[in-house]
Design brief:
The protein has nine helices and 30 strands. The protein has a seven-stranded antiparallel β-sheet with strand order 2-1-6-7-5-4-3. Strands 18-24-23-20-21 form a five-stranded mixed β-sheet, with no helix packed on it. Strands 26, 27, 28 and 30 form a four-stranded antiparallel β-sheet that branches. The radius of gyration is 28 Å and the shape is globular. By secondary structure, it is an alpha+beta fold. Helix content is 19%, strand content 24%.
C-alpha cells in the first residue's frame, strides 16, 4: 500500500511486516522509522463526510492535560493519510501506545490478579481520577465521546489513561457549528433516554458521556459490577441488566419492591460517602433529569480529594480502604470469596506484593497522576488463549425478499449486538451466542459489537442483493364485472396495485403468490397497472 501523509508530506509503503493489529473498521500499522507513531488504514472507502470530519479533528485537537508530561490522554488524529495515486483519504496518523490494557482488565478480579498483581484499591481510585481528567479535557473543547464503553478506554501499568477510537466521537466544527455525529453505541453504557433513537439523526450532549463514565467508574470501584444489575425476590418479575437500565433501577441507593444488588456484590457502604452521593446523582437523579449527572470535573476533583482518606490495612499491606469504615472491607470480602468452593486464595488484593503508592501532589487541575510500579510484577501469569469469535451468514448474495440468517459466538461476552451499516441495532443477545434472521431489499453490511470482552471483533459481513429484471406484463383483456388475472413472476415482495386513471386501490397490501386475482368493478379503459415495491412485514 503506497500512502502519503497529507500535512507532513512523507511517503510510505505499508506491508504486513508493519502490521500491528486491527479491528472491524481498519488495520493499524507502524510508521517506518518512528516508533512513536502509528497509522490507521480504513478497510473500506472513506466517504466525504468522514474525511471532512477527520480534517476538522486534525485542525482542532483538544488540550491534552498530559501532553507536557510525555503521555497522550487522548489518541487524537495528528495527520491525514491519503492514497498516493489518487490523493483520497484512507486513514490517519496517531500516537503509538505501549504496554496498555483495556480498562476491563483492571476491574476483572481474575485478570487483575494474574496480570496486574501490584494494583491496589488506591490504584483503582487513581485510575478513575485519571479517566475523568481525559474526559474533562474533551468536554472543555466541546467534543462528545458518544459511545463510551470499556473497549475505547485503555491504561498502562502506572494507571495513566488514554481514550482511543476518537474518530467515532461527535465533533462540532468551530465557526460553522456543523456537527459530525457519533453513529455507534454500546447499550450497557448508553443512558436510558438514548436507548431507542437513530444515532445518525440526533446530536449528543456531555450528559450522555456522564452516564457511561459513571458506569465505568462504578465497575472500577465495585469489582466489575454493573450499577443497574439487580436481583429480584420474585423470579417472575426478573429482567435482564439492559432492561433494568432502561427502567432506571439502581438497587444500591434505595432497595425496594423486591429489587436488591446481585449476590456477591461488594457492600455499597465501603465507598466513600462523597462517591455514594455522586453515584446516586448519576443513576437516580440523572435518570429523571440527565443534567443532574455529575460532570467529569466533579468526579475528578472528588476522586483526587478523597484519595487522602484511604488508609492501609494492618493485616494486609495490599488492602486500602476509606477511613469512614471501622474495619477493612477487603479482609471480609476475601473471607467470603475464599469460603466458596474455588481452590486457592481469592483475596481481591493478595499479599505478598509491592504496594502501589500514588503521587500525592495535586498538580494542576485535570492532570493525571501515575502510580509507582515494580520493575517486574511478581508471579505474572500468561493469560489463557481466548476462543475465537465466530460470525457467519447463511448467504452473502441474494435476491430481494430472501432471508439471511446470521449466527455468532463471542466467548465470555455479557451481551452481543448485531448492527447494520448505519449503526442501527438489528438483534441483541444477552448471552455469548445467538442468531438473527433479516429480509433485505438492498445491499448492506452487518457487524458485531460485544460487552464484557476485549477480543477483536470479526470484519463486517456484506450482503449483496441482486435486483430482479423488470417484469413485462402482456396486454390483458378485461371484461366489465369480471375477474382480472395477473401473473406475478419474480415479484416475491409485498405489493400494492393501483389503477392510475381511476386512482382506485384494488388490493390491500399482501404477499403475492405465483398468481392472484383482482376484482374490479369500475369502468375500465386504457388501464395502466403500477407495481410499487415495499419491504415485507415482520
Amino acid at each position: 500500500m503506497k500512502i502519503k501523509m497529507q500535512k507532513g508530506g512523507l511517503d510510505f509503503t505499508l506491508d504486513d511486516s508493519l502490521l500491528l493489529g486491527g479491528g472491524t473498521e481498519g488495520a493499524i500499522y507502524q510508521v517506518p522509522g518512528d516508533d512513536s507513531l502509528v497509522i490507521k488504514i480504513y478497510r473500506g472507502k472513506v466517504d466525504d463526510e468522514h474525511a471532512n470530519k477527520l480534517r476538522v479533528m486534525v485542525a482542532n485537537p483538544p488540550d491534552d492535560p498530559m501532553l507536557h508530561k510525555g503521555h497522550a490522554s487522548i489518541a487524537w488524529p495528528k495527520d491525514l493519510v491519503v492514497w498516493r495515486e489518487n490523493q483520497e483519504v484512507c486513514g490517519f496518523v496517531m500516537g503509538r501506545l505501549h504496554d496498555t490494557h483495556p480498562i476491563s482488565r483492571f476491574y476483572d478480579l481474575g485478570v487483575r490478579r494474574a496480570r496486574l498483581p501490584f494494583f491496589t484499591y488506591q490504584s483503582l481510585c487513581l485510575l478513575g481520577s485519571n479517566l475523568t481528567s481525559a474526559v474533562w479535557a474533551l468536554h472543555e473543547k466541546g467534543y462528545v465521546i458518544g459511545d463510551v464503553n470499556e473497549g475505547n478506554i485503555v491504561a498502562d501499568n502506572q494507571a495513566l489513561v488514554t481514550i482511543v477510537d476518537t474518530d467515532s466521537f461527535q465533533i462540532r466544527e468551530e465557526g460553522s457549528g456543523l456537527v459530525y455525529r457519533c453513529t455507534v453505541y454500546t447499550p450497557l453504557y448508553t443512558p436510558p433516554e438514548f436507548q431507542d433513537v437513530f444515532f445518525d439523526q440526533v446530536s449528543r450532549t456531555p450528559e450522555q458521556d456522564h452516564f457511561g463514565m459513571g458506569v465505568l467508574l462504578f465497575q472500577l470501584l465495585m469489582e466489575g459490577q454493573l450499577p443497574f444489575a439487580c436481583a429480584f425476590s420474585n423470579p417472575g418479575k426478573a429482567v435482564d441488566a439492559l432492561e433494568c437500565l432502561k427502567r432506571g433501577y439502581f438497587p444500591y441507593a434505595a432497595p425496594s419492591n423486591g429489587i436488591i444488588p446481585p449476590p456477591g456484590a461488594p457492600p455499597y457502604a465501603m465507598l466513600h460517602p462523597a462517591l455514594q452521593k455522586l453515584f446516586n446523582q448519576c443513576f437516580v437523579d440523572g435518570y429523571k433529569c440527565p443534567a443532574l449527572r455529575p460532570t467529569a470535573k466533579d468526579w475528578h476533583r472528588t476522586l483526587r480529594d478523597i484519595g487522602r482518606e484511604l488508609i492501609k490495612c494492618t493485616s494486609n499491606v495490599q488492602h486500602y480502604y476509606f477511613n469512614h469504615l471501622q474495619k477493612c472491607p477487603w479482609c471480609e470480602r476475601a473471607r467470603v470469596l475464599n469460603a466458596g468452593k474455588k481452590p486457592g486464595n481469592w483475596d481481591p488484593f493478595p499479599q505478598p506484593g509491592t504496594v502501589s503508592v500514588p503521587n500525592r501532589s495535586h498538580g494542576r487541575s485535570g492532570t493525571q497522576r501515575p502510580i509507582a510500579t515494580p520493575s517486574a510484577p511478581p508471579f505474572a501469569k500468561r493469560p489463557a488463549p481466548q476462543a475465537p469469535v465466530v460470525f457467519t451468514a447463511s448467504a452473502t448474495s441474494i435476491v430481494p425478499g430472501q432471508s439471511i440468517t446470521f449466527h455468532w459466538v463471542v466467548p465470555n461476552a455479557q451481551s452481543v449486538q448485531l448492527k447494520n451499516r448505519s449503526g442501527r441495532i438489528v438483534a441483541t443477545s444477552n448471552s455469548p451466542s445467538g442468531s438473527a434472521t433479516v429480509w433485505l431489499t438492498k445491499s448492506s453490511s452487518y457487524r458485531l459489537t460485544a460487552a464484557g470482552v476485549t477480543v477483536v471483533m470479526p470484519a463486517p459481513i456484506t450482503i449483496s442483493v441482486t435486483q430482479p429484471a423488470p417484469v413485462a406484463l402482456k396486454e390483458i383483456a378485461v371484461e366489465l364485472n369480471a375477474p382480472m388475472a395477473l401473473h406475478s413472476a419474480q415479484l416475491a415482495l409485498r405489493k400494492t396495485l393501483l389503477l392510475r386513471k381511476a386512482l382506485t386501490r384494488l388490493l390491500s397490501p399482501m404477499r403475492l403468490k405465483e398468481h392472484m386475482q383482482l376484482d374490479g368493478y369500475q369502468h375500465l379503459k386504457d388501464v395502466t397497472v403500477e407495481l410499487n415495491y415495499a419491504a415485507p412485514a415482520g
